[in-house]
Amino acid sequence: MSYLELTRMAGAEAILAIAVVLVLFFDLYVVRDQTHGTRRGFAAALSVIGCVAGLMFVKLMGGEGEAPGGMLVLDDLTRIAKMSVLGIAAFAILLSADNDFTPHVGEYYALMLTAVIGMALMVSAENLLMMFVALELASLSLYILVGFNKHCAKSSEAALKYFLFGGMSAAFMLFGLSLLYGLSGSLELDAIARSMRHQGADPLTLAAMVMVLIGFGFKVAVVPFHLWAPDAYEGAPTSSAALVATGSKVAAFFLMAKFVMTAFPESLGNGGWRAFEAGWAPAAAALAALSMIIGNLGALAQTSVKRLLAYSAIANAGYAMMGLLGNSGQGMASVMFFAVTYAAATLGAFGVVAAVERNRGGDKLTDFAGLQKDSPWLSFFMMVFLLSLAGIPPLAGFFGKFYLFAAAVNGGQDLSLMWLVIVAVAMSSVSLYYYLQPLKQIYVVDRPAGAGEFKGGFALWLGLVGLAAAVVAFGCAPDLLVECLVGGGY
Amino acid sequence: MDDFGASCLSLIVPVTFLGAAVIGLVRMPDEDVRRVALGTALIGLVLGLLGTCSFAHIDGPAIAVLHDCVWVKSLGVRFLLAVDGISLTMVLLTGFAATAGVLFSWNVDKRVREFFALYFALIGGVYGVFMSLDLFLLFVFYELAIIPKYFLIAIWGSGERRYAAMKLALYSFVGSAMVLAGMVAVYVAAGAETMNLIELAAKAREGAFSESFQAWAFPLIFVGFAILAGLWPFHTWAPTGHSAAPTAGSMLLAGVVMKLGAYGALRVAVALFPAGLAQWADAIALLAVTGIVYGAGVALVQRDFKFVIGYSSVSHMGFVILGLVTLNEVGLSGAVLQMFSHGIIAGLLFGVVGRMVYERAHTRQLTMLECMGLSKALPFAMGTFVIAGFASMGMPGFSGFVAEVQVLVGAWDASPKFALLAGVGIVIGVAYTLRAMNQVFFSDAKPQHELTVPPTKPISLPEMIGAVLLIACTLGIGLYPRILLDLIVPALHNDLFQAMWGGGGL
């Protein structure tokens, strides 16, 4: 493999790394003396440009390839996943441009970009070591981002919780990976699959698999590895929480799906009703069911919208796990479609929450009262995002769910996975209740006295319009994304 | 059907949503908003009438495809709009109810643009359901209608509006969640390549759905849809929702939204799962009959005028559900006719109760209304309510009579005991209607305190037009039911229902 080839394959990451350096450099030497707003605008613009440039590079350079040992793999599906992650990150950064909680502007955006590099590498890794390194790069950056608001004790608490849970699950994962390496003698996913083809589901393989699933479970926040999520989302600066909830999840879901489907096509097992068979499928089914139940029921009691979104994230991770059970190209496509559209809607919702926090001083449900009077468009966007999360057509979340359910049931034999679909739809009816709570405040409850003019920067509106357009477009014409994902082939 | 008719019908959905968008986005004075709203509703009605005329000329059992293109290629989902006689009946009903609803909400003055924008978003969804032949598309439109309902009730309603709105939204959503689960199962069981209802019906006929599959898929989908049709014991959203809703909201809820459920149950559950229907027909008929008798009985003891009408809707929708499971031509066509008839009559009743009386008397308590001498103060309201009440009781000459008799005959053919029980419901129906009529309009009670001053504002022109429109409909169909039956009966033999006739009903 020539260097030229390597540059082409890791081009997006390279561009992002350059952007990191540029952001730090400009903030330190060029705009140091300017106002906070200018510095922020400058750093955010540079970071967004970095992400978009990376995205364009992936889109335009195209091609397929693989670095030795599966260190970096580029094929159609990987490229789409990478572009999605970069796009989501660009929006996350865009929505963070109004932040004024920290004087360390350059460092904040540099860390955001390193997290994005980690996510981009996660997407294209098919090697155990590379997987772990990429995961850790993303995680370590995110730990710091969560604790970045130094004046707020909650932020530090959130970071500590996130870090402790993260460190623990990383240890599990590393142990699982080392077992896998010991069993198969290889670090490359394909080679692992080949060497374990005839081993079936022996206990050690299962133990390794479960440990790796724990690591992933933490990243995507499925029950019972979810406990950090509500606190981290609530305490973290909203823009950091948005990145944790979206970009990192999309990348982790892609990696997890690729990992279980590539490395363990044989030890799938069966998670069907009365058809139980040991393997990763029943584990995934159990995680999915638990997350859907606990996430949705937990959200009912929340009064903070950020915590509500955290529980909704847990529930949505549960839905997305169902797609893994499809264990097919359809399953993969459905997970990715769901993750991307979920990320768009969640990111948008966080953007609105951040704007409300800045103008009304909190993210409690009651802080949203009568918002439609102050800012009809912000309210409308919030409605689009929340209804998409609730799965109301014609928004993207609805099609995402349907696609997941269809793929999951189609993957199991004889409709044996219908039990999971029934749990999912039952729980999604619960979810409508809590998604309607903020909307009720916004549209039905009267505005409190004293609330007034709403301020939002250009970046906020640009971000919200883009995300809302994406949510509507992917809902009305899902083929825009589905065809790419299916065409990408798996 | 000629091209002109087809293009008329295919315009209805876009025109309605366009109306919603224009009203929602363009700033204009309230008076103009109402005019645009009336215009949108009328265009929908006229397009529906034109399409129906052109359809009625030629096609008997045919299904006329209006629009067909690929929507999601890899799943085989199509954007497929088509009509047959049954859907046309429902489209007409929606047109009439929507027009009357606009006329009866002429006095809305709070957030008018939002009100009518949501109103037409709801109507657009309803039209869409009645015209889609692709199961996925049907479901999309079906769910689209939930959210506008929530806001219409929660913002413009009265009484316990937020509670009622949330209850209604959750019941609807639970119902549609059940349908969604069933839909996924049907899709996968039929080979995961199509959602076209005709193709699914063909597969059902070839035996793609095993008997054990139908045994659970049928109740899942049927009950899922029937929750919205007010099937007892899942009906409790209906009375609270109807009474809390603003007048146009109740008119639409009782008039067309409940029909969405019945229509879905007929088109999907009954049409695709004959074996499932055969197993469950008795149980569902029992629930339907219970609903008829229970709804009527509860209506008899209500103190709130609007709740009387709310429970009467539960009772009347029981006839629709009973008709669906008789699985004979008379019963099924009676069910469809009852959907139309109840839509019109319920709209009329809610118009009188919610708009003409409540907006003027500001109370719905029967004991307070009886002291107001409403027959003198509001003679027009009295006249309308008497006519609507007779129609609702099933007096010959009104549409309710034809429809309920057909359902009863169908049920008698299938299983006389259910017909007898349903007959009891009709008798109680006469009682509660007369009781309410007597108490509100013909009571001699004297005013006891100053709250019961008779209202002075006269009935306005839009209200009169709306009432006359609906009365004309119910009379027209009552006197000459063949206008609709000629559409409905042939449609029961088209490709969609081929699988159905193979199974057994009650």
What's the topology here?
The complex is a heterodimer of chains A (490) and B (506).
Chain A: H1 3-9, H2 11-30, H3 36-61, E1 65-66, E2 73-74, H4 76-95, H5 105-124, H6 128-146, H7 153-184, H8 189-195, H9 203-220, H10 228-235, H11 238-245, H12 247-263, H13 280-300, H14 305-324, H15 329-360, H16 371-374, H17 376-390, H18 396-411, H19 418-443, H20 458-476, H21 479-488
Antiparallel strand pairs in A: 1-2
Helix pairs in contact in A: 2-3, 2-5, 3-4, 3-5, 4-5, 4-11, 4-12, 4-15, 4-20, 4-21, 5-6, 5-12, 6-7, 7-9, 7-10, 9-12, 9-13, 10-11, 10-14, 11-15, 12-14, 12-15, 13-14, 13-19, 14-15, 14-18, 14-19, 15-17, 15-18, 15-20, 15-21, 17-19, 17-20, 18-20
Chain B: H1 3-25, H2 30-58, E1 64-72, E2 77-83, H3 85-104, H4 112-131, H5 135-144, H6 146-156, H7 161-189, H8 197-205, H9 211-228, H10 237-244, H11 247-272, H12 274-300, H13 305-326, H14 329-361, H15 366-369, H16 374-377, H17 379-393, H18 399-414, H19 416-441, H20 461-479, H21 482-491
Antiparallel strand pairs in B: 1-2
Helix pairs in contact in B: 1-2, 1-4, 2-3, 2-4, 3-4, 3-11, 3-14, 3-20, 3-21, 4-5, 4-6, 4-11, 5-7, 6-7, 7-9, 7-10, 8-11, 9-11, 9-12, 10-11, 10-13, 11-13, 11-14, 12-13, 12-19, 13-14, 13-18, 13-19, 14-17, 14-18, 14-20, 14-21, 17-19, 17-20, 18-19, 18-20
Report on the architecture of this protein.
The complex is a heterodimer of chains A (490) and B (506). Chain A is mostly helical and 490 residues long. Helices cover 74% and strands 1% of the residues of chain A. In chain A, strands 1-2 form a two-stranded antiparallel sheet. In chain A, a hairpin with a 6-residue loop joins strand 1 (65-66) and strand 2. In chain A, helix 10 (228-235) packs across helix 14. Chain A is globular and about 70 Å long. By secondary structure, chain B is mainly alpha-helical. Chain B is built from 21 helices and two strands. Chain B has helices at residues 3-25, 30-58, 85-104, 112-131, 135-144, 146-156, 161-189, 197-205, 211-228, 237-244, 247-272, 274-300, 305-326, 329-361, 366-369, 374-377, 379-393, 399-414, 416-441, 461-479, 482-491; strands at residues 64-72, 77-83. The longest helix of chain B has 33 residues, at 329-361. Classes of the chains: A mainly alpha (490), B mainly alpha (506). At the A-B interface, helix 18, helix 19 and helix 21 of A face helix 5, helix 6 and helix 7 of B.
